[in-house]
Amino acid sequence: MFVGTHRHSLDDKGRVILPVKFRNRLEVGAFMAKGRDGCVSVYPADEWERVASKVREMSSEGEMQRRAARAFFAGAAEVAPDRQGRVQVPANLRDFAHLGTEREVVVVGVHSRVEIWDGGRWDEHEPEADRMIAAAEEIPDFGI
User: Fold this and answer.
1) If one looks up domain 2-135 in CATH, what number appears?
2) Mean local confidence (pLDDT), 61-81
C-alpha cells in the first residue's frame, strides 16, 4: 500500500527519486500513465494489469471510451527504479503533468498507485481536497 507525501525534484534527465518505502513494490517493474487531474500515475505491475483490464473492457462501450483507452495506453510507459531509486518520467508524461526538470515535484501514495505532481499544482490542489473531505457527508469517519 502506498501512503504519504514526499517532495523531491526532477533531475536534468527527467528522473525523480522514489521514496524508499515505495521502491519494493515497484522494483520488479511498474507502469506510468497519464493520471486524473493532471498528474502522472505509477502503477505496480499487478495493479497495472487490473487497471488495464478495466480500461480494455470499457473501450468496447463506445467511441468516447475507445478514444480514452487509446490515449491512456498510447501515453503509458513501462519503468523500473534504478539502483538509487530513481525512475525516468518520459517526456510526454512530463509535458502532460507540467513537470519541469530542476523543479519540485510531489510524490504521493494513493493506496494502490503512486502519483507524481508538479509541486505548484499539488499545492493548489491539496487545500481543495482537504475541504472536500471535511464537507463530504458520505465519506466515513475512517474510525477516528
Assistant:
1) 3.40.1550.20
2) 93
